[in-house]
Specification:
By secondary structure, the protein is an alpha+beta fold. It is 50% helix and 18% strand. Bound molecules: adenosine-5'-diphosphate.
Length: 263
């Protein structure tokens, strides 16, 4: 093969690869749109169905039907908000802040938020924080809060008995936040998939819980936007452990070196 031929072949191979990648991206986009349409259509069908029933049958309990309609509408709202969040992140519109925050109260608040829900299911909910965690750190408070809320709410949702433990380790400016539960667990084949939009665990127990499969997709993207990473280990029937690692630097303290020669 001449040099010119060789370079032509290389270009063709590159084009072929680019085409395959573009096709795969298009297919993924189509799958995504089908999933979105399906997810939006089902709660809307419920709303239409009950609205039609109300029109025809005035003996129906307005309160009961109202609740069903409101829940379905909430489902659509959550879905649309989740999608907007993902597109804001992907298009880079999302701005990341670097706030100086009191970090311990943030963990306390989040765990407190879920106390009632955990107690209602008879679950022990605990929080343990490494003494080395500085009192104040710099991070995007709203995003960090959102990640933690998603992880703790999932742990409670997918655990029927036992405990949910939040443990915060800290070393060399990196926080290692673990949310461990004794819940239904995730099958090995589902571990990567559950971080994709609209993907949910295949088990009957997972499917029996309400959800749209966007929480972990948003959590993973947010974690990477904050420069962190998230990993999961799980055993079906035993429990799951989600670990979120993120740099949480303490603010620089101004040095207080004595002024030479001053009296
Ligand atoms: P959703 O809970 O709305 O389905 P998520 O994206 O938050 O969406 O989670 C995706 C899937 O991951 C869930 O449907 C569930 O199968 C699985 N999952 C997430 N967290 C847990 C957990 N703590 N224990 C067991 N399964 C979990």
């Amino acid at each position: 093969m001449t040099a010119a031929n060789a370079s032509h072949a290389a270009t063709l191979a590159e084009l072929q690869r680019a085409k395959v990648t573009a096709e795969a991206a298009n297919e993924a986009k189509t799958r995504y749109l089908v999933a979105v349409s399906h997810e939006i259509r089902s709660p809307l069908n419920v709303i239409y169905g009950y609205a039609q029933l109300l029109e025809r049958d005035d003996t129906l309990s307005g309160a009961e039907v109202g609740t069903i309609i409101r829940r379905s509408a909430e489902h659509v709202t959550n879905l649309v908000e989740g999608l907007l969040e993902i597109s804001r992140i992907e298009s880079g519109v999302l701005t990341i802040r670097s706030d100086l925050i009191d970090i311990r109260p943030l963990f306390d608040h989040i765990v407190d938020m879920f106390r009632m829900q955990a107690a209602a299911k008879g679950l022990a909910l605990t929080l343990e924080i490494d003494d080395r965690l500085p009192a104040q750190v710099k991070t995007d408070e709203k995003r960090l809060r959102q990640i933690l809320i998603n992880l703790v709410s999932n742990a409670i949702k997918y655990t029927q008995s036992g405990s949910v433990a939040v443990k915060v380790g800290y070393r060399s400016q990196v926080a290692d936040i673990e949310v461990r539960d004794t819940g239904i667990g995730i099958a090995a084949g589902d571990l990567e998939r559950v971080f994709e939009p609209f993907e949910r665990g295949n088990s009957a127990e997972a499917q029996s819980q309400p959800g749209i499969g966007l929480g972990l997709a948003i959590t993973r993207v947010l974690a990477s936007v904050l420069g962190g990473d998230i990993a999961v280990e799980s055993t079906p029937g035993v429990g799951s452990s989600f670990r979120f690692r993120i740099m949480l630097p303490a603010p620089m303290v101004a040095s207080r070196a004595p002024v030479q020669g001053a009296r």
